[in-house]
Amino acid sequence: MPIINPAQEKSCGHWRRAQLINVSKESMSYSDFAIPIDWPTHLPHQKVARYFDMYAEHFQLREHIRFGARVVDVRELHDENNRWVVRWHPVASPAALEETEIKEEIFDYVMMCSGHHWKPRYPEFPGMDPSAPDTYTGDQIHSHFYRQTDVYRNKTVVVVGLGNSGVDLAVELSLNQSEFIFSLLFKILCPPTHENMKPEALPLGCHPTVSTLVYERISTGTIKPSKNINKIGPGKKILFEDGTEVEADTVLCCTGYHITLPVLDSDIVTDGKPDAQDNNEVWTWKSMVPPRHPNLVFIGLSQSLGAFMPLAEMQSRFSADARRQVGTVAIRGANG
Fold first, then answer.
1. Across residues 83-97, what is the average pLDDT?
2. N or C: which end of the chain has fewer CB atoms below 10 A?
3. Strand order in 229-232's β-sheet?
């Protein structure tokens, strides 16, 4: 019987904290359960969460979900069937767990669906170290930990990064009487409307950022594109590469994530390369199956161009088929 172990106490924990999805409902629907036709084209986070809830209810998935179960590790059993030992504990348990509180179960097949949007990647600028004498004294936060807009009311915020998260948060918070400055690590906004926003890559050469609202906010001056940061601090000073300087209350890093799988033996997905995960290199076939472990499959490590849900669905369908014929799937090589 399949068992799903999410750490959250309810489904769609990530989407309940998100803003407005940037793909259409038509492109993000699962093939076997369409989003209601009378819903808006671009769904607010409440409706994304509701859609996933409806899907789980329709296919009676909740009876297979053990909410509030945090997986500690997934280990090879090294028996004749190459099974896996999954160790987990209830999230409600105290931080200092006794070994007796950790539960173990053995599975023939494991699907890792944790994705890669959970260990924040930070940029490195002089002045970020809080122990340094000339350190930046404002707030430094990654978009992963963003929760409420009121914290930034009437403040100046420097957003590092121009991906979807950076654009969405800057637009939302600029409506909150905040002044935003974009520090452009890598310019990918399409189309550009400012000299500091011209894309560095050729068309289709990287994952683009597309936003209609950000241009309006730039035209009002509440969002100001800038060069990359040269240094932060001392105090609340931010020095940019073109020599301009501002005083900012917060540096908001929208700089993506590290691919990290701490519950697994790292050699399974790195082939023993020490810096592989730091460089987001995962040793898998089609970003899904470690070559030596056909009964372990990853769902959600791929970066889609467009809506991710249909890709995750196809990965899940492949995994279900592979489950029925473990050992017969042809795996040519890492990412081949």
1. 76
2. N
3. 229-232, 237-240, 245-247
